[in-house]
Amino acid sequence: MSRQGNDPWSPAHTLNRRRFLSLAAVGAGLAALRPVKGSILSQAAHVPAGTQAGDWPMFGHDIRGTRSNPYETIIGPQNVGQLKVKWTFEEFQGWSQSTPIVVGDSLYFTAHDGHVYAVDTGSGSQKWKFDAWKGIQPDKIPLTQSQFRSNMFREMRGSAAYANGRIFVGDATARFHCLDADSGEEIWQTVLDPEAGTHQSLISASPIPYGEKVYIGLSTTSGRSHIACLDANTGALRWRFDTVPDPKAAGGGAIWTAAALDPQQGIVYSVTGSVHGHVAGPILFSESMIANDMESGELLWFDQLRDNDPFDLDYSCHPILFESTHPTRAGVLRHCVGAGSKSGFHTFDRYTGEHLWTASVTNGGPTLNSTAYAHDKIYMVSNSISGHGQIAQSATVALHAYSGEVLWWTPNESSSQGAVATANGLFYQGFRDGTLQALDVETGAPLWTFKLPAIRRGGITISKGTLYTLCGSQDSPPYSLYAFSIDGR
Q1: pTM: predicted TM-score of the whole model, two decimal places
Q2: CATH superfamily for domain 11-486
Q3: Whole-angstrom Cα distance, residue 484 to residue 233?
């Protein structure tokens, strides 16, 4: 449902309203399929095959995108102050904005030097690396005919994902790769946009594997962004949903981050970016939460924050699925999907698309996936856009998942840039000044702080008693992967 628009009954918006209104009957059917009232689905219930308790196998930890590891029992509020560097890995040549994934004794991450790396979690030694650009010579192929963006050569933005002994990852040439997790050998490759150079296409989103399928988003600046469902065994396209239906429209609705899945109801949720440049008139599906059928890609509902935004206040954080319980009425719960934009956190009924609440706690909002869910709370790091010396650069807050009420608030001396995490009573965050912190999830009190030698841009991962994160950002070395454990052991 579009909240704004110069012509709310234009053909695009009429289609949108009709789709949404037709959900009255669909919503009733979905309601009949919902879990029994009062039950809460386990946030740990949906992780890929081949993983074990404590692993962190994909960007959001699980297909619901909670960025919370409920199996972590080693690091807690009582001993987090004892975290020390266990090892560092410095064999990559470019910065990384990915979230490291951990399965068994292997860690996988991507870097802007064009490689996927596999590292031993015990020693920090390299197991293998995969060169996504092997055999490609960008200067030999005209940009208009290339299958890659030559000006983005070797860049890899998104995180990898693990399922069934395989690694799934996309690159800046709009190619999607499936690798053997043990050897790094490529099993298959799919080009999501054969004219990626012309369209300025890339994959910056992180994949979500589930069963025999993989869900991934494509970003372009020319109006051909889409959500794709691929066959996990072959890479064949099962369906695609174009987020800019009009090929003549300016680019908008790009998929920058990971999706979230509700397999009980068969729904995949995605969020989109803003319009590239200011253009006249509305742009359908830009700055939107979109719900598609997992099997067919059919649009079920969408909510658009603004249909033509000149201020780039788009969704900058991944969607999260969660159940929220009423603060005073026992047994009353909501089945929600929410995501952070640069103006706040927005929450919807995930079956009907009904807007439930929005929380804005600073004069900016969360960026680059700085949100997580656990303990019936949404944790969010909201940046400030003010340069006033007496205003905090950001604030970390815990929001009640049912109402959006602020439960606690902690001001920060720097702004956040990168994905956060929760586990075992702790919320982990990092900042542009290199600060890493662990906060108590109930009070917001800082319990541990470490200063990295450069900006923290990569995501934070908590797995089996170890914290992993990446140091360095664009033109801001050193580039290092850090592992922290109790007393460095």
Answers
A1: 0.90
A2: Quinoprotein alcohol dehydrogenase-like superfamily (2.140.10.10)
A3: 35
